[in-house]
Design brief:
α4 packs across α8 and α6 crosses α8. The chain is α+β, with helices and mostly antiparallel strands and 460 residues long. The chain contains 13 helices and 20 strands. The chain folds into 3 domains: 148 residues, FAD/NAD(P)-binding domain; 124 residues, Polyamine Oxidase, Chain A, domain 2 (Alpha-Beta Complex); 127 residues, no CATH class.
Length: 460
C-alpha cells in the first residue's frame, strides 16, 4: 500500500500555460495548490530549445498585445513582448505587399468613415486618394492581381475588419456558424481578397490554411488582429510559462511526476503514490486528458513544423511577418525573428524561423530553402539549418460546430482546462484557466488554505 505523501486543497495535473495560470489564481486566493508535471520542465507546448546561443521555439505560436488574459493573469503584467512590424507582408506574384498596417481599435465614427470611403470608391473608382479609410490618408490604385484586390476591395475589407473590431464578443459568438471559408464567401468578400490576404493571415493565426475553422473563431482572431499587434515573448516561447512558474509560491510546481489516475479527491502518481486533495484540475493537452479521464472529447489537430535557419547576412524584411499569398511552397509564414527579438540569437547572427502547416514534405529542409529563396528574394544556399521541430498535435482544430466555452467543471471536485476547452490559442488556454479557477473557488467556498503543503517524497 502506498501511503499518502502530500495534501493540498487543489492538485493541478499539467504545468502548461493553463495549469500554471490556474495555479496563480488559486494561490492568490489563499488556496494551497500542487502542480504536477510529467516532463522535466514546465511549459508544455510553449517550449524553447537552446542551441549554441540560439533560442528556438518548437511551435512558435503568435501572441497578440490584445489578448485580455495576458493583462489579467496574475504575474504576466511583467511579461516582455516583442511586437512585429504593424500588419504583415504578403508575398504575391514575386512582389511583397504591406497589408493590415491599419490594424488598430476603431471608434464608431472611424468605422462610419470607412463605410463612406467604400461608397466614395464605388462611385469614383479611379480616385487616387480617399479620406476616412482606416489608418490611411490615401489609398493608391492597386493592380487587380495584388493580394488585396482593387482599391474598392481594400476599402470594403477595411470597413469589414473595422466592424469586427468594434463588435462585442457576444455579438460575434451569436453569428451563424460555418467553416470560415464559406462564411467569408457568403458575406460577399471577393475570392482574391480571401485567398490573397485573409487565408494566409488566418493560417498564421489559427494554423488552418484550408479555413475549415469555425467562422466564429475566425472572427475572434481577426478582431484580435485589428485590436492589437502580433508579438512573441522576449527570450522565446518558454518565457511565458517560466515567468508563471517562477512567481508561484516555492514548492508549488513539481516536475518529473507522472500521474496515472485521478479522482475527485486524489490523484495517483508513479513516483509518489496517492496525493489527497479537495479538488483536481486536469490541465494537460486534450489527448492526455482523455487518457486520464475516458470520455473527454479528443479533437482533431493541426500539425505544425518549425524550421530554424541562421545566416550572417539577414534578409531585408525587418521585423515583419512574411506570409505566402500564392501558397507556392511548404512555408505558410516566416520571419527574421532576430529582428523582432534580438535576445534569441548570438551577436552577429540572424535567425530565420519558418512555419510549415500540415504534413511536411519528405525533404523538408531542401523544400523550405527553395521556398524561402523566393519569398525573401535571396540565396539560401549558405544558410545553416539549426533545427526542425515537427509537432503532429500542435493546435486543436476548431471546426464547426465548436463550443468556445466547453464546460470546465465536470462535477464537484473534478475540473478540466486548456486550449481544447476554449479557443486553440494562448488566450484560450489562459481564459479556460480563469474559468476553471473561478469554478473551483466557488465550489470550495474557502477564502483561505485548509492544508499546509509538504514536500513530495518518494513512495514506499
Amino acid at each position: 500500500m502506498l501511503e499518502p505523501a502530500y495534501q493540498a486543497d487543489v492538485v493541478i495535473v499539467g504545468a502548461g500555460v493553463a495549469g500554471l495560470s490556474a495555479a496563480h489564481r488559486l494561490t492568490s486566493a489563499g488556496v494551497t495548490t500542487a502542480v504536477l508535471e510529467a516532463a522535466p520542465y514546465p511549459g508544455g507546448r510553449m517550449s524553447t530549445e537552446k542551441i549554441d546561443g540560439f533560442r528556438l521555439d518548437r511551435i512558435g505560436q503568435l501572441l497578440s498585445t490584445a489578448y485580455p488574459d495576458l493583462r489579467l493573469t496574475p504575474s504576466l503584467d511583467t511579461l516582455a513582448l516583442r511586437p512585429f512590424a504593424p500588419g504583415v507582408l504578403l508575398h504575391s506574384d514575386g512582389r511583397r505587399h504591406r497589408a493590415g498596417a491599419w490594424a488598430r481599435p476603431m471608434s464608431a465614427r472611424r468605422t462610419r468613415g470607412a463605410l463612406h470611403a467604400v461608397r466614395a470608391l464605388a462611385s469614383a473608382p479611379r480616385a487616387a486618394s480617399v479620406r476616412g479609410v482606416p489608418g490611411q490618408t490615401s489609398l493608391p490604385r492597386v493592380r487587380a492581381s495584388a493580394p488585396l484586390g482593387t482599391a474598392v476591395d481594400q476599402a470594403r475589407l477595411g470597413a469589414a475588419l473595422a466592424r469586427l473590431a468594434a463588435s462585442p464578443v457576444e455579438r460575434l459568438l451569436a453569428r451563424p456558424e460555418l467553416p470560415a471559408a464559406q462564411a467569408l464567401a457568403a458575406r460577399g468578400v471577393p475570392a482574391r481578397t480571401i485567398d490573397g490576404f485573409l487565408r494566409p493571415l488566418l493560417a498564421a493565426l489559427l494554423c488552418d490554411p484550408d479555413l475549415t475553422t469555425s467562422s466564429r473563431c475566425a472572427d475572434l482572431a481577426l478582431r484580435t488582429f485589428m485590436s492589437g499587434r502580433l508579438c512573441v515573448p522576449e527570450g522565446g516561447a518558454e518565457a511565458l510559462p517560466e515567468l508563471l512558474a517562477r512567481t508561484l509560491p516555492p514548492g508549488t510546481v513539481h516536475t518529473g511526476v507522472r500521474v496515472t489516475s485521478i479522482a475527485t479527491t486524489s490523484v495517483t502518481t508513479a513516483e509518489h503514490g496517492e496525493i489527497r486533495c479537495r479538488a483536481v484540475l486536469l490541465a494537460t493537452d486534450a489527448r492526455t486528458a482523455a487518457e486520464l479521464l475516458p470520455g473527454l472529447r479528443v479533437p482533431d489537430f493541426h500539425p505544425v513544423t518549425v524550421v530554424h535557419h541562421t545566416t550572417d547576412e539577414p534578409p531585408t524584411t525587418g521585423a515583419s511577418l512574411l506570409l505566402d499569398a500564392d501558397r507556392g511552397g511548404p512555408v505558410a509564414h516566416t520571419a527574421v525573428i532576430s529582428q523582432v527579438d534580438p535576445s534569441r540569437t548570438p551577436a552577429g547572427r540572424a535567425l530565420i524561423s519558418s512555419t510549415v502547416l500540415g504534413t511536411p514534405p519528405p525533404d523538408i529542409d531542401t523544400a523550405v530553402r527553395m521556398h524561402l529563396a523566393r519569398l525573401y528574394g535571396t540565396s539560401t544556399a549558405r544558410w545553416e539549418t539549426l533545427a526542425v521541430h515537427h509537432t503532429p498535435e500542435a493546435v486543436p482544430a476548431m471546426r464547426p460546430p465548436h463550443d468556445l466555452r466547453r464546460p470546465v467543471r465536470l462535477l464537484a471536485g473534478l475540473y478540466v482546462c486548456g486550449d481544447h476547452r476554449d479557443t486553440s490559442t494562448v488566450q484560450g488556454a489562459l481564459h479556460s484557466a480563469h474559468r476553471a479557477a473561478t469554478a473551483i473557488l466557488t465550489d470550495l467556498g474557502a477564502a483561505g488554505s485548509l492544508h499546509r503543503a509538504e514536500p513530495l517524497r518518494a513512495a514506499a
